[in-house]
Design goal:
The chain is built from eleven helices and 13 strands. By secondary structure, it is an alpha/beta fold. The strands form four sheets. A seven-stranded parallel β-sheet has the order 3-2-1-4-5-6-11, with helices on both faces. The protein has a two-stranded parallel ribbon with strand order 7-10. The radius of gyration is 19 Å and the shape is globular.
Length: about 325
Amino acid sequence: MKILVTGGAGFIGSHITKLLLREGHEVVVYDVVKPSAFSLQLLAGQGSGSRIKSGMTMIEGDTRDSKLLLESLQGVDGVIHMASFISVEESVEDPIKYMENNVLGTASLLAAMREAGVRKIVFSSSATVYGEPASLPITEDFPLSAANPYAASKIASEAICESFFNTDGFDVSILRYFNPYGPGEIHDPETHAIPNFVKAGLEKRPITLYWKGEQVRDFIYVEDLAAAHLAVLQLPGFNVFNVGTEKGTKVIDVLTALSDILGYEILTEDKGDRKGDVMANYASSQKLKEATGWEAKVELVEGLKKTVEYFKS
């Protein structure tokens, strides 16, 4: 198949693209930013990152550029839509930015797909759409809650995808990620816990900690997450799946594991409570497993070791 991956030069997108190429697919990477050095290394399979694997085209473009999208979709069989702004804090400060990029970008992509005759999409969503869950583990039939503008942008984008299933017969698979981590996670600013913890630990700086680290999260290794996209690629109809390990881990326990890996205790700086935090969430991914056979394989300690090695290098 020929697959267009929006956001394919980013953290998760690079891993998805690498796996698609390995499985023999042709890939069009469509991203508003140029790939990082890590992305180039990952996609090239070369230490220098100077060469790109055959079977891949890279296009620098915005998902709101309808003309470029239409040109890029020619001959494409399906789309994995990763392109998104992802900071909860930034979405609160600038909600218009998130609605324009995340929601309008998704609508623009779907409209271009319809015009190009491409009717298969895998959409990157988030566990933030559940807000504060009433019970655990979280299943796909839980009510949705727009706890912040980022979550609202994902809920709206999911609804737009569903509307194209209803009106145009698109095959739609929505993947609600829990807490991805792993090599190559570099954002500016970096708001995710594990890369911040690893970098601070390596530099022996105190780590800012909220709620004394008692929050519970479902941390999923990026290669497991990437594999889920290929698992749903052939599914027909409209589907919604959680993608997680089905294990809840306290943030403080992640720090303990990192201290063991590094061989010294990581210092913390207690910041008390933080408004808007969800105290606990972890997934039930049984629906995805039953539909495709997918399941998370990389245990947290193994994934943390690989992440530490990446940041060391």
